[in-house]
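user: can you give me the structure for this one chain? C-alpha cells are fine.
assistant: on it. calling the predictor now.
[tool input]
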Amino acid sequence: MKARPNILTIAGFDPSNGAGLTADVKTFEVLKCYGLSVCTANTVQDDQSFQDCYWLPIEQITAQIKVLFNRFQIDIVKIGIVENFEVLNAIIDSVLSHNSKAKIVLDPVLKSSSNFQFHSNSDLDDVLGKIELLTPNYKEIELLYPDKNIEETITHITKKTNLFLKGGHRLDKLGKDELYTKNGKKYSLNPKLPNCSEKHGSGCVLSSAIASYLALSFPLLKACYRGKRYTEKFLSSNKGLLGYHSKK
C-alpha cells in the first residue's frame, strides 16, 4: 500500500466536529492523506451557535508543532483559527523553522458564523509572504483591510501570495470561487453540483481539501478545482448543517 502524505492542521477544536481540526482530519482521511493536528483553542459551540473560546498559550502550540515535526515529514500545513495575528506569525515562524519549504494554506477565520469576533488586529502583511495560499470568503476579505475595497485588497494580497476567494457569501453568482495567483493570473471556478445547502465548517473543509490535493502533488489550480468539487459533495450530502464526508 502506498504511503500517504502527512498534513498538519493547526486549528481549534469544535465539539460538534463540523468545523476546526476534526473536520480537517476527516477531510484528509477521505482524500488519502494522514492528518496530524495541533490545537489552538477549545471552543464551546455546536452547529448552530458559538458560545465561547478558550485559547491555548503559544508555548503549548509551538511545543505541539515541534514534537510532530521532529517525528514526521510534514510538507503541507493548514492553519485555521488563532487568537490574533501576533500568535499567527509566531505559529508560521515555528512551522518554517522546522521545514523552511513547507507550504502553508491559511484559512483566515475572522468570525464564526454566529459573529463571534476572533481577531482584533487585521494586519496580515507580516505573514502573507510566508504562506502558499490564503482562502477567505467575501465577508472575511472585506475585514482584512478595511481601508481598501475588494479589488484593492486582492491586488495587495496577490503581490505577496496566492488567493482563493470563496464565493459562498457573494451577492452575485453565488458559489463562484476565484483563484488569483502571484503571477497575475485569475481563474474562475463555477459551481457544478445542484442541491448544495449551507453547512457548518464548509470553509474548513474546502481549505483542507485544497491542502490535501497539494500534499498529493497536484499543482495549485488543479488542487483548488478538486478541493471545490470535494466541498460541493460535502455541501450536497444532506439537508442538515453537519455534512457527511465522502469522495464518492
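assistant: here you go. The chain has one domain: 6-235. The first strand starts at residue 6 and ends at 13.
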